[in-house]
Specification:
With 609 residues, the protein is of the alpha+beta class. It is 52% helix and 18% strand. The chain starts with a helix and ends with a helix.
């Protein structure tokens, strides 16, 4: 019987946990899909970035070829020659350039199809590498140099053009060209150009894994294909709408229909060549993993949801039916009718609980009267205990003051027969009468001030020079209810600790009162020695702990402050009491916090009885 319900709960909760985990996977589908989309786009962006980097790096190699060609001065001399110059000298320069510069470049870079230099004087020299050469007329040369000068800059920066001076049907060529200054003239004298086979660059991009339906292509600034897997498209114009989207994008993606297929395009524009490198893949291929996740998640989620509903129903019925019986029995018990509930035939922990409930009802019916009587007795005992504690705390006021006062009276009586003795004794009598004349803690602010006045009468004969206290309490606060014997212990504490080295002319004590934040407060402020940070922290800790004072070397530490604080809390609760602010050598301010409205303790005692 003891383990039956436990096994049920274990199995049911195990199923619930498994179902919860499956359900979490359903809710995480959207986040997984979003992350997968982001990952695909990141991979495509990474591929296109790598392709752009490799392409730019490859093209910059040819920029070094220009440097190699221009290291000597032969090309500059050739470009400066006038059109009708010495033909022999021209051929000598042409031969020297080929042997010393062009042939090594062709050997190192077989992908270079042609190298040529054309001057503005219509001088031109052409070198071809395994392509069919061509001779040009003067008009053709003039048009060529005008075209290249138009598409280059005087600063010598290399320009990349999707054009060629050759009618090469086998290879797609593009041209790297730059302006060249003369040997003796700082102005541009002509151009130097390299024509490169685009097919050689395709080896850089064939390693990109784009699946069966993905491909990569390059478009130049004029909207023509520099590279495309379909060689028939090389040199042709890109569709206008596609070209516009390519130009508007840089390291970003967009989707566009290509026939009946929706494709995603990721574009990277090369700052060096001005080309746009594009990766294109069908959206369906990119989101195929997401579709598989969605289908699997929906199927598993639906199945587990149905199973969870069935198990939850069975589990709920097995628990709630007996609990309903217990609930009805408890409702009858709450009405004072000690109802005995029926016990089912099965045996498990809930049935055992029902049996024990019946036993409990029988015992409660027998003990309730006894408990009621004991509670009444406890209330009376607790009330008496509080009275005793209050009286005990009241009697713990520092007796040293009374001893010192009596000693002063003896001194006066011994020295002279003076009226001071009568004054001291009269003030002391009023103080003692006020301290022990009532069993209640409730008094008025005016009574506390009067008690403090009697204390000052006695103190005047003990302290030299005479000392007056600044009382700034408004008249409307004089009849407010407070706890008795709260001001005098705080003022006495000032003379004992704040003015421990004697009272000086600049010393003051100020008493004030007011309202704020739902409290009525009184404050006692001095400009004496103050309290160090460590001592203040220790004192606040004692106030928080509600201790009446610890024994230190046989002396009670701060019993006056702690006594006042604890008596206020015993009357009004833990919210009220003392709040202390102090700095060493800058004085201390003690706030006494009371509720705005104080109920009469006599009425409270009557209520408790």
């Amino acid at each position: 019987m003891a383990g039956t319900l436990y096994r049920k709960l274990f199995i049911y909760f195990l199923v619930v946990i498994v179902l919860s985990l499956v359900s979490v996977s359903l809710f995480s589908y959207r986040k997984s899909s979003a992350e997968l989309d982001a990952m695909v786009q990141h991979q495509m962006s990474q591929m296109i970035n790598n392709a752009a980097y490799q392409t730019d790096l490859y093209l910059k190699i040819y920029e070094r070829a220009f440097v190699a060609l221009l290291q000597g001065d032969d090309i500059r001399h050739l470009l400066e020659m006038p059109f009708d110059g010495d033909a022999y000298e021209f051929h000598q320069y042409r031969k020297k350039i080929k042997e010393e510069s062009i042939n090594p470049i062709f050997i190192r870079n077989p992908e270079i199809a042609a190298v040529y230099a054309i001057s503005q004087n219509s001088h031109a020299t052409y070198y071809y590498n395994e392509v069919e050469g061509k001779q040009f007329k003067t008009a053709d040369i003039h048009n060529q140099v005008a075209f290249f000068l138009k598409h280059t800059t005087p600063d010598g920066k290399v320009s990349i053009l999707n054009s060629s001076i050759l009618d090469n049907k086998n290879d797609q060529l593009f041209t790297l060209v730059r302006q060249v200054r003369g040997y003796t003239h700082p102005e541009t004298m002509g151009i130097l150009a390299l024509e490169i086979r685009a097919a050689e660059l395709s080896a850089l991009w064939k390693g990109m894994e784009l699946g069966d339906n993905g491909y990569f292509f390059i478009v130049d600034a004029q909207g023509r294909f520099i590279y495309h897997p379909d060689k028939q498209k090389l040199g042709t114009l890109v569709q206008e709408d596609l070209a516009q989207k390519v130009y508007d994008s840089n390291l970003s993606s967009f989707e566009k229909m290509d026939g009946n297929v929706l494709r995603m395009y990721t574009v990277k524009k090369s700052a060096y060549s001005g080309w746009s490198l594009v990766v294109s893949m069908p959206v369906q291929d990119l989101r195929k993993p997401i579709s598989s996740i969605r289908t699997s998640t929906l199927f598993v989620g639906l199945f587990t949801f149905i199973v969870a509903l069935f198990l939850a129903y069975r589990f709920g019925k097995s628990i709630t039916d007996p609990i309903k019986v217990l609930k009805n029995g408890m409702q009858e018990t709450g009405k004072g009718q000690w109802a005995i509930i029926p016990i089912p035939e099965r045996k498990d922990e809930i049935v055992e609980l029902m049996v024990r409930y019946n036993v409990m009802v029988n015992r409660l019916s027998e003990l309730v009267d006894k408990v009621y009587q004991v509670e009444l007795n406890n209330q009376e005992i607790e009330l008496e205990r509080h009275k005793a504690v209050i009286q005990s705390l009241k009697l713990q006021i520092n007796p040293h003051f009374l001893y010192n006062t009596l000693e002063t009276i003896v001194c006066y009586a011994f020295i002279q027969n003076s009226k001071e003795i009568s004054e001291i004794v009269d003030a002391l009598a009023h103080m003692l009468r006020y301290s022990v004349g009532t069993n209640l803690e409730e008094t008025k602010v005016a009574n506390e001030l009067k008690h403090l006045l009697h204390y000052l009468v006695i103190l005047r004969h003990r302290v030299n020079p005479e000392f007056e206290i600044d009382v700034a309490i408004k008249p409307e606060y004089l009849l407010r209810d407070v706890v008795c014997l709260t001001l005098q212990p705080l003022v006495e504490n000032i003379f004992q600790h704040a003015f421990a080295d004697g009272v000086e002319d600049y010393h003051f004590i100020r008493i004030d009162a007011g309202e704020g934040d739902g409290f009525f407060w009184m404050s006692v402020e001095d400009n004496g020695a103050g309290i160090t940070a460590d001592k203040l922290a220790e004192l606040n800790e004692k106030l928080s702990a509600n201790r009446l004072g610890d024994e230190n070397d046989g002396k009670k530490d701060g019993i006056g402050l702690l006594n006042v604080h604890r008596r206020i809390q015993m009357v009004f609760g833990e919210t009220y009491g003392l709040r202390i602010e102090s700095e060493a050598e800058r004085g201390t301010k003690i706030m006494l916090i009371f509720p705005l409205s104080i109920p009469s303790l006599k009425e409270d005692f009557k209520t408790l009885k």
